[in-house]
Design a protein that fits this description.
This protein has two helices and five strands; from the N terminus they run βαββαββ. By secondary structure, the protein is an alpha+beta fold. It has a five-stranded mixed sheet with strand order 4-1-3-2-5.
Length: 89
């Protein structure tokens, strides 16, 4: 199991980005946290197989129908506590 932190900037708040990101992460079998940040970005900490984490990153470049992501950053992390599902804040 791998863990990565994602930071997505652009028009990603108020456009159903987190809800559709949750569905995509669940479809890929990922677990973790997705949340809005005060700077207007969305961040996620997700755990799963490397291939699925990369697929999630690729999805983030498109996002929800109304989203306009400008930059997607994916940073590997040391795996912390094991997540049980996807939590959205």
């Amino acid at each position: 199991m791998k863990q990565c932190h994602f930071k997505i900037t652009g028009k990603v708040q108020g456009v159903w980005f987190r809800a559709t990101a949750q569905k995509e992460a669940e479809r890929l079998g990922l677990k973790g946290i997705i949340q809005n940040m005060s700077d207007g970005s969305v961040e996620a900490t997700l755990q799963g197989a490397q291939e699925e984490l990369v697929q999630f990153k690729d999805w983030c470049h498109k996002g929800s129908d109304a989203a306009k992501p400008e930059h997607v950053e994916m940073t590997p992390q040391e795996a912390g506590e094991k997540f049980e599902g996807i939590t959205v804040h």
